[in-house]
Each structure stands twice: as structure tokens, then as C-alpha cells.
Amino acid sequence: MNIVRYTYPNRTLSPFSLLNRSPWTGLESEIDRLFDSVLSDFASTSAPDRFPVDLYEDAENAYVRAELPGISRDDIKVEVVDDTLTIEAARKLKEDDKEESFLVSRSVSLPDSVRSEGITATLENGVLTVTLPKREEAKPRKINVSVN
Fold it and tell me: How far is the C-alpha of 33 from the C-alpha of 5, rounded, in Å?
């Protein structure tokens, strides 16, 4: 979906002009614009070239989770280059005697708190989980309070 910046016209309205104005003015055109942009993203290709990812973390690790149903482990490539995690997957579609393959990919910038060594990736039931260990200095530490 394309992000569109919408700005209101810079004009002053009198208080009486707002009384005659319907609260639904412009809503229909905004909804049409929203659906047109979403549909044009999917109509441009027969398969989208990106997939959604979930990013979350705990005290020890950061995680990137992607749903890749129907893609085998051999067709998935995970790599880190210059603090950027890239996940690529080849999706193969079979119709009758014809086979098509599409490459879907997603890149995520890694924060400074993540170590590039020790990254692991697991695929379970079509869900790819990439575990990114945090640096020791980025992990939370408990500090004892002493009484004077």
C-alpha cells in the first residue's frame, strides 16, 4: 500500500458554513482512494513480492517472525549483511503442466543492540523465526541498592 500525504486546503471557514455541511462529505472519496491503492498493489503482479514480518524482543534476544506457508526449508535464504537481515523465499506455483516461481523477500535493519554472531533461524509449520541475540551491554542488569 502506498502512503499518501493528505493535506487540507488552507482556507478559513465561517462558522455558518459548517452548519450546512454534511459530516460525510469527502468520506466516500477517501474510502475509494484507500481501496484503490490496496487493490492496485495486488493487481500489479500475480503474486506479491513482499510478506509481512513480526518484530519483538525479550531481555535476551530480538526476534523476526515471518509466515511462509507452503515454502520448504530449502527454498528459504536468510542472511545478514551490514546490519541488515534479509529473508528471501522462492514460492513455486503449479497449475496443470505449468510451473511458475516467484521470489519474495523482506529486509529489516538490525539495531545496534543485536550481535550478528549466533543468529539462528527455525522453520516450524510454515512460520520462520529468526533469533537475534543481544549484546551483553544491551541486556538489562539488576543493580543492588545498598543502605547507608
Answer: 12
